[in-house]
Amino acid sequence: MPIVSISLNDEMLTELDKLQKTMGFTGRSEAIRAGIRNFVSEERQKNELSGNLHAILLVVHNDEFDHIIAGMKHSFEDLITTQLHSKIHGNKCVELFMLDGEAEQINLITKNFQTNKKMDTVKLVTL
Fold first, then answer.
1. Which of 17, 24, 49, 96 is 20 to 30 A distant from 75 in Cα terms?
2. How far apart are CA 11 and CA 1, in angstroms?
């Protein structure tokens, strides 16, 4: 089996260790493999979407990155029917975007948020 090395900051390592213990994984590698399987499965499902969709995109970020959210919002304003912004804890914010449009565009906005390192959490739910 090939070996892949990754670097994690202390916070991520602490979270990984918590998940390992609470979910019963025998080691960090097993927990990471489960996370990768989940990620691959989610991406495969998104790539299989087609046609006109209704979806909810949830994004959690630090409030200092509101300008990034605003830029993305303007880039996809024809796709976004509603946006809800709320401060959830300390300097963290949550954005809920109601989306209506072609699957390709919904995948594109989702990937733009997912690949932005300033975003903490990005989840897509199709309806």
1. 49
2. 28
Mind listing the pLDDT tens digit for each residue in 96-126?
A: 999 999 999 999 999 999 999 999 999 999 8
pLDDT tens-digit series, residues 15-32: 999 989 999 999 999 999
- CATH fold, domain 10-46, is Arc Repressor Mutant (1.10.1220)
Instruction: Please name the residues in contact with 106: beta carbons below 8 A apart, sequence gap of 6 or more.
Output: 49, 53, 55, 57, 79, 99, 124, 126
Q: Is 19 exposed, middle or buried (0-12, 13-18, 19+ CB in 10 A)?
A: middle
pLDDT at 57 (0 to 100): 97
Instruction: State the CATH architecture for 51-126.
Output: 2-Layer Sandwich (3.30)
Where does 1-127 show beta strands of DSSP type E?
52-62, 80-89, 92-102, 119-126
At 95, list the tokens: 């954005």
